[in-house]
Design goal:
With about 190 residues, the chain is mainly α. It has 7 helices and no strands. Helix 2 crosses helix 6 and helix 3 (about 40-55) runs antiparallel to helix 4 (about 55-85). It starts with a helix and ends in an 11-residue tail after the last helix.
Length: about 190
């Protein structure tokens, strides 16, 4: 069963990495999945929180940082170092179109996917009931960055899928802890001060 799943995963990787190749994605994906590209978005999130929630923004940011730290710790240090799955671009028997430098380290789970889905789901849990469009924007954001990891050749689809699930669980956990112990109901109205 596991062997069959890994074979399907490899074939899906080949499809995304090679068959979906086109000029537009070749140009955008190496940049799109890079954290520096998203720095203005992170600044926007922080600004939005402080403009709308003032002092309470510190608590929201603390719990968001706890979600990111937890997701990175579990993905990068616990899972990757125990599973030890080679990145597709380091797999000697696999032909990969490398669009960025491959790098060392292991592949499963994708820390990009885990971290971005943790951020997205944390924010969705806090804000999406009030502003429904936020969840679609954040899911597209995290999903497209995760897709980019496969497209550029550094992760298999299963790496990003499992990373996304892990990120959703971690983001949801920290959002529920925030709401239960320190939060206020962000879903029903915007509060300030």
């Amino acid at each position: 069963m596991l062997v069959a799943l890994l074979e399907v995963d490899t074939e899906l990787f080949k499809f995304i990495n090679q068959s979906c190749s086109n000029f537009f994605l070749d140009a955008i994906m190496p940049i799109w999945r890079h954290k520096i590209f998203w720095a203005p978005f992170y600044v926007f999130i922080i600004s939005f929180l402080f403009i709308n929630f003032r002092k309470k923004a510190y608590w929201i940011l603390l719990f968001l940082l706890l979600a990111i730290g937890t997701s990175d710790l579990i993905s990068s240090h616990l899972i990757k170092k125990n599973v030890e799955r080679l990145r597709p671009c380091n797999e000697p028997e696999l032909v990969v179109t490398e669009r960025i430098r491959c790098g060392s380290g292991y592949s499963f789970t994708s820390s990009h996917a885990t971290n971005h889905f943790a951020i997205a789901f944390f924010l969705i849990c806090l804000f999406a009931e009030r502003q429904k469009w936020i969840k679609y924007l954040l899911l597209f954001w995290a999903g497209s960055i995760s897709f980019g990891q496969v497209y550029v050749g550094v992760h298999y689809p299963l790496d990003v899928f499992c990373g996304a699930i892990l990120g959703v669980l971690i983001g949801g956990l920290w959002a529920s802890i925030y709401q239960r112990y320190y939060g206020f109901d962000l879903r029903t109205k915007w509060e300030t001060g």
